[in-house]
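Quick one, tokens below:
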């Protein structure tokens, strides 16, 4: 049946032929599909009636039309009859391959691909197709409703033939579907839905529009379903065209016109059913099919879709977590905002209360000053009034004396009056008070400009900006580091907090910072610098500085600082009896004269073992020292365990590692094996880098900033610097910071040295048979 169905399928719409035309090339084509081909060639300057030819979509044969157009082509009546019988057979056998495929859940997807045939929807057979297109069933629907809807919703048609409805379809079915053809208001309830017409009808309208004769006998009637269930997706490029194919090249849904005349013309396509089956195959329950079938059904596209779905689910989970955190932060913002608003009201109310109280106090002071000043002024006014009255009486008496015409009387009273006037004039100068302008309150002022500026500057306090550690200002010794930093908000910072820990090489500072157990904390620092004591020598540390005020705190960027190397001197107790050490124990010189030195287990004592060791044992950190070689041409410089033999050369045993020069030959030696290395004959300053934590011992030409050799050592015990000479003298410089060129060379050669030492360990640590100095 499936093979027969493929032979009855239109090459354009990929559905069973509907009103097929017999082309001159012997191929067949749906009438509506042929009509659509002609429509696709139409334009404003080229109407449909003027198109006289088109190509067969199967063989590209040019079909020439006469004046009747498509009506001039013969109908393939035989093919239409075969299709009708095929459809009846498929309907009568629900377990047939075709019907079984149509009953699968992909039908809701195939509902989105209908509509590739424009024009009539009657689908009439024989030669009566023209009259069928004018039937009442098609008067209210045009162009986009065609035979594809038959296949689209054929799963719904099983409501007639099979009681086992699809749960998804049943769940979505409207309990009451109205007739879409009724003219009365409200319309009657629909009893059937025609998936061919894509219309729901009541019983009266169904009898009127679907008489029991062709072409309506081929229409598929199902139980009423919503309109959205029978209309499919439309093409994005061709309006009102329903998608019915899947482009495998562009991975998208397309319509028949896209394949026929669009940009997908040369692309490989598949039917929606086939593509749907492939993408859904991996979801089939393993309990229903065999493992072999399951593996065969999992195409690459299905796997890709499954992976994408997994990633999408994971991404959704991350987004949900992120959203939950954001919601939590929003809630915290609400809580903190309410708290700060309440605090703002409280603080402002306190300020207002302080102003109110100060207003009352100042007002009382003003009133008291007013009373005091007015009392003083009233007293002065009373005194002035009293003086004025006495003066007025004296003036009156003097004026009467001046009017006296009797000489005797005038002379008798004039002298007395004159004396009184003179006394009154003299006393008036004393009694008249001086007017004090301060008593007028003119020198009193209310100036709150400073307070107003302070109030205008009221604002909420924020956490200070992160401080910045100034690496160029920081200093270090072998056991101390002085950290300097700067802050843009120095005046708003109440204190600083310094945190530090040993740097373990971890690049994720956030994770390192969160491991709070390993951090040392120095709180309540008031200055912009602090010296940390008691640190390990030759060790890198991570420092953070936290600026703190009442609003919160912020951390600086991390800074990596390192203590200097461990300083040491030569230990006289270990020096060979034929070596002479300087008073400061920094220089050793070969002296052939036999000196009386007591024998101790630590002393180099073997014949020719003219050596001395440092006075420290190193078990951690990175340390650098230099040896001034002077004119010596025979020496061995390196490190050794405490257990290394003292009666033989350093490097002759498994407990010591040295760089040696014997006249013009330079070599490295360990466990009695030697390897020549390249070095300048003018080597006068040897740099030694002991990185105990990273298991390496390196030698450098310090004058020329050149790397000579690196030992990769798995240290098991503490080591001590060792020095041997057979002529002249050497001087040591210890406690030095690691030079920049050493850090750069160590970084560049680390991988190379590891590979080289790995090969050496696989074969032989050193080349044997080299020349040995004796």
């Amino acid at each position: 049946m499936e093979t027969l169905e493929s032979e009855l399928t239109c090459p354009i719409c990929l559905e069973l032929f509907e009103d097929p035309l017999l082309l001159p090339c012997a191929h067949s084509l749906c009438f509506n599909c042929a009509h659509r081909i002609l429509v696709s060639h139409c334009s404003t300057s080229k109407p449909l009636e003027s198109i006289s030819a088109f190509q067969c979509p199967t063989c590209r044969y040019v079909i020439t039309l006469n004046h009747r157009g498509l009506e001039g082509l013969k109908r393939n009546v035989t093919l239409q009859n075969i299709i009708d019988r095929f459809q009846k057979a498929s309907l009568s056998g629900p377990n047939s391959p075709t019907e079984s495929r149509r009953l699968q859940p992909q039908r809701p997807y195939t509902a989105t691909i209908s509509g590739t045939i424009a024009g009539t929807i009657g689908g009439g057979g024989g030669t009566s197709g023209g009259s069928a297109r004018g039937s009442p069933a098609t008067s209210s629907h045009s162009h986009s409703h065609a035979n594809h809807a038959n296949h689209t919703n054929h799963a719904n048609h099983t409501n007639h033939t099979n009681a086992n409805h699809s749960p998804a379809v049943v769940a979505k079915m409207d309990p009451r579907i109205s007739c879409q053809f009724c003219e009365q208001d409200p319309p009657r309830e629909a009893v059937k839905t025609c998936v061919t017409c894509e219309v729901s009808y009541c019983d009266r309208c169904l009898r009127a529009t679907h008489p029991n004769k062709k072409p309506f006998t081929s229409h598929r009637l199902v139980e009423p379903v919503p309109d959205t269930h029978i209309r499919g997706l439309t093409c994005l490029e061709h309006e009102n065209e329903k998608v019915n194919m899947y482009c495998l090249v562009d991975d998208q849904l397309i319509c028949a016109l896209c394949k026929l005349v669009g940009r997908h013309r040369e692309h490989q396509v598949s039917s929606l059913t086939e593509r749907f089956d492939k993408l859904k195959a991996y979801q089939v329950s393993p309990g229903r099919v065999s493992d072999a079938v399951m593996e065969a059904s999992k195409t690459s596209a299905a796997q890709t879709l499954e992976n994408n779905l997994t990633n999408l689910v994971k991404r959704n989970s991350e987004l949900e977590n992120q959203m939950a955190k954001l919601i939590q932060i929003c809630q915290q913002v609400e809580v903190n905002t309410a708290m700060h608003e309440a605090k703002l009201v409280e603080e402002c109310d306190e300020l207002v209360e302080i102003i109110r109280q100060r207003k009352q106090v100042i007002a009382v002071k003003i009133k008291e000053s007013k009373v005091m000043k007015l009392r003083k002024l009233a007293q002065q006014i009373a005194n002035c009034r009293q003086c004025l009255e006495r003066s007025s009486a004296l003036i009156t008496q003097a004026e009467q004396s001046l009017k006296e015409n009797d000489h005797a009387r005038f002379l008798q009273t004039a002298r007395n009056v004159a004396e009184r006037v003179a006394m009154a004039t003299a006393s008036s100068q004393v009694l008249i008070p001086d007017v004090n302008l301060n008593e007028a309150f003119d020198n009193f002022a209310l100036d709150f400009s400073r307070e107003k500026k302070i109030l205008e500057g009221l604002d909420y306090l924020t956490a200070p900006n992160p401080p910045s550690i100034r690496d160029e200002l920081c200093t270090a010794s072998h056991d101390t580091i002085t950290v300097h930093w700067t802050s843009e908000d120095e005046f708003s910072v109440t204190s600083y907090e310094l945190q530090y820990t040993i740097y373990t090489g971890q690049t994720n500072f956030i994770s390192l910072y969160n491991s709070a157990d390993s951090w040392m904390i120095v709180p309540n620092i008031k200055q912009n610098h602090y010296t940390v004591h008691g640190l390990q020598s030759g060790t890198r540390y991570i420092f953070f500085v936290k600026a703190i005020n009442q609003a919160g705190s912020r951390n600086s960027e991390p800074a990596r600082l390192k203590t200097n190397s461990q300083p040491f001197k030569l230990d006289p107790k270990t020096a060979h009896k034929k070596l002479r050490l300087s008073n400061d124990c920094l220089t050793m010189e070969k002296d052939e004269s036999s000196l009386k030195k007591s024998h101790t287990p630590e002393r180099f004592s073997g014949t020719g073992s003219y050596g001395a060791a440092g006075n420290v044992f190193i078990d951690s950190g990175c340390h650098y020292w230099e040896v001034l070689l002077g004119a010596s041409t025979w020496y061995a410089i390196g490190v050794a365990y405490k257990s290394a033999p003292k009666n033989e050369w350093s490097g002759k045993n498994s407990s010591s590692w040295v760089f040696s020069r014997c006249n013009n030959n330079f070599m490295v030696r360990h466990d009695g094996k030697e390897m020549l290395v390249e070095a300048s004959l003018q080597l006068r300053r040897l740099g030694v880098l002991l990185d105990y934590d990273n298991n390496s011992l390196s030698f450098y030409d310090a004058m020329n900033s050149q790397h000579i050799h690196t030992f990769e050592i798995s240290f098991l015990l503490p080591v001590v610097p060792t020095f041997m000479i057979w002529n002249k003298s050497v001087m040591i410089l210890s406690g030095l910071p690691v030079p920049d060129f050493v850090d750069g060379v160590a970084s560049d050669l680390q991988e190379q040295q590891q590979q080289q030492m790995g090969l050496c360990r696989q074969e032989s640590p050193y080349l044997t048979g080299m020349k040995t100095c004796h």
